[in-house]
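JOB MANIFEST
job_type = single_chain_structure
chain_count = 1
residues = 499
[input]
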Amino acid sequence: MDIRAQVSMVFHLDKCIGCHTCSVACKNTWTDRPGAEYMWWNNVETKPGTGFPTLWEDQEHYKGGWKLNEKSRKLELRSQGKVDAFLKLFYNPNQPGLEDYYEPWTYKYADLFDAPEGDDQPTAIPVSQITGEPVEIKAGPNWDDDLSGSTIYAENDINLDELSEDEREQLFEIERVSMMYLPRICNHCANPSCVAACPSGAIYKRGEDGIVLINQDVCKGWRACVSACPYKKIYYNWKTGKSEKCILCYPKLETGQPPNCFQSCVGRIRYLGVLLFDADRVPDAMTVPDHALVESQRSVILDPFDPHIIELARANGISDEFIYAAQRSPVYKYVMKWKIALPLHVEYRTMPMLFYVPPLLPVMGKLDNGTYDNEVDGFFASLDKSRLPIKYLARLFSAGNEEILESVIKKLMAVRYYKRSMEIEDLDLVLISRMMREGNVTPQEAEEIYALTALPTVDERFVLPPLQREEAMSSPNLDPETCRGCSGFGCHDAPARGA
């Protein structure tokens, strides 16, 4: 058993208001420079929608993540094999192009300031930040923001493919039009396909905290990582010729400060903490059928209160501070204790270590008489009529396993009605009790979920000691002359895990 600590995050989508403050905070800090204009390490998408870059979820085209070889029962990269890996260094048909992102632009502000006096209002025309030439703006990083009912963006969401014709039509009826916001950063996966695909060994996963980074001194700009990442969260800097990605603000984490996206979040949707997991079991955990992937990933995450796990973690160089943080981790509570936070597109088999609490509202579907189903008694029975179909949410968060997604929605709804029953006298308490049993939640647990969702302080949402990288590098198990702190996990002197 090889126990590792993973800095992880939960996004509570019921609290996200789509303000993009997190994106702007990240942009101003990390990618406000030449060559990185089009990069958005943090972006917020409207779902249903095509996302950024366009249709990034279409792995039939982009070939990101891992695929399971049915004969050998081993994982293989979708983006390349032993035969074509060399050829794709020079031409890769599955790379996203600038048209899949957008051509970054600015405005000729001097035309406003220096315009001669006249009868007409001067204007500043948009110009490309790459060529400096005038450009017609046709797309942007949040171009489809709030366009949940559009035939251009929402209806082309690949997650809608398995919906029946009636379900698709109902979703886009004007009375039922619905949307959710999906903030995305690098998932700092436990089985990262980008690490395995990099021919120069520039990408590695730090052993002491699980953060995936790109060594800019080693990167040769082959861009194999861009294709291999199924979430398209690695970008190519056309100015420096290097690949770049979200670094989870590790310089701030090393001094005990939260990341910029976390700190600036208006809705307070982000929770950051530590998970302990067994690195030895990661590759095998991702070889199960799609419908079992969520539970398989959960089986890899370890109980930080187990004395045996604590002993092994200490032996592997994990400090008592990290173990204590893992015990208080809000991420562990959402993912393992309450099991209401799920990984995004776990079917890509990279084992993403960032999780999402699916949106609860709007869950009510439209009835035949034109009114919404707001009866408590019919809630669980009407999940199949929800305005955001359960099948759609399951495609996003549980690899199509509707049973897991329904269990999460039921628990969230049970908590909501339980708290509502404490304020509204005419609610049927017997019915509330039945909902609690069906939602598999106790009153104590409901209070805990409510408190961490609606009333958390910063210290409850951010539970992480300084990363203590100096201690990790001085571990007796590591050679400080050659090791970068990744403990062999994606080490340059050893094969990348899962490769």
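[summary]
The chain has a mean pLDDT of 88.
The two ends are 19 Å apart (CA to CA).
exit_status = 0
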